[in-house]
Amino acid sequence: MSTPLRIGVISSGPAEFSTIHEACTDAGHRPVAYFYGRSLRPGGPNLDDAGEMTVSILTSVPRGMDLLLPGGMGGLARALESYRIDLLIVFGFAWKLPRAVLDTPRFGAVNVHVSLLPEYRGPAPLLWAIRNGDPTGGITVHRMDEEFDTGNILAQQGGIPLVDDMSWDAYCAEAMPVVYALLRRSLDRVVAGDAGEPQDESRAGYAGFMEDGFDVVRWSENARTIHHQVRTHRFMRSSGAPVAEVDGA
């Protein structure tokens, strides 16, 4: 095969890191640094579970692998350049990466997105799929550009069950083998210089964060809508939500 790629990985949890690492190494490539996205935006506050998640990720970091927690875009860009990254793989990272960062790796950057793009672009595709009562979800691996989830598609697959009692562990059991397979196919296409297929803009939809007030049950909604609202909060592991008024209290 061609010369192995030096790969940087930005992700948000141990299952994601482990799956990407296995796909890369089985394809003959070499992850050289992990980056944990500890905030929703560059320079923003740490996520509430950032400390706990960092400890969990450390259990999946191979011996000798560097784990970095960039606080801003400048630090991330300098680190990518210093590691001489050939390809950046992203899975579960909320920052919008500028062209200067995307162009630092020789082969650019690819993203793992948990929907069948162009449906559910944005930071919360799985939450919206649960909220809408979708019976199944999908995974897409696509090239990254300067907008969120708009780059050319390298591989995708649907049919991942979104069971009624959704949990992240249950989802990972179904989704991570699919992520592995799609990454293997995508890596081959990247090495071959394949640009991928453009997305169909006529089918595009956006999945932003849940709006203010989504933690309150409105009895004027139908039972199905309220049921999926509760499912969504349960999947998010919301504490004390959603709440509802009963008999004026």
CATH class of the largest domain: Alpha Beta
The major β-sheet equals: 7 strands, mixed
Q: How many structural domains?
A: 2
Strand content: 15-25%
pLDDT averaged residue by residue: 93
Order of helices and strands: EHEHEHEHEHEEHH
CATH topology type of the largest domain: Rossmann fold
How many separate helices? Answer: 7
- C-alpha termini separation: 67 Å
Low-confidence stretches: none
Strand order, sheet with most strands:
3-2-1-4-5-6-7
Pairing-aware structural class of the strands and helices?
Answer: alpha/beta
Describe this structure in words.
With 249 residues, the protein is of the alpha/beta class. The chain folds into two domains: 6-203, Rossmann fold (3-Layer(aba) Sandwich), CATH 3.40.50.170; 210-249, no CATH class. Helices cover 33% and strands 17% of the residues. It is built from seven helices and seven strands; from the N terminus they run βαβαβαβαβαββαα. It has helices at residues 14-26, 50-58, 73-82, 99-102, 125-131, 168-191, 223-236; strands at 6-11, 30-36, 66-68, 87-91, 109-113, 136-143, 153-161. It has a seven-stranded mixed β-sheet with strand order 3-2-1-4-5-6-7. The longest helix has 24 residues, at 168-191. The termini are far apart.
Concise structural overview:
The chain is α/β, with parallel strands linked by helices. It has helices spanning 14-26, 50-58, 73-82, 99-102, 125-131, 168-191, 223-236; strands at 6-11, 30-36, 66-68, 87-91, 109-113, 136-143, 153-161. Helix 1 (14-26) packs parallel to helix 6 and helix 5 packs antiparallel against helix 7.
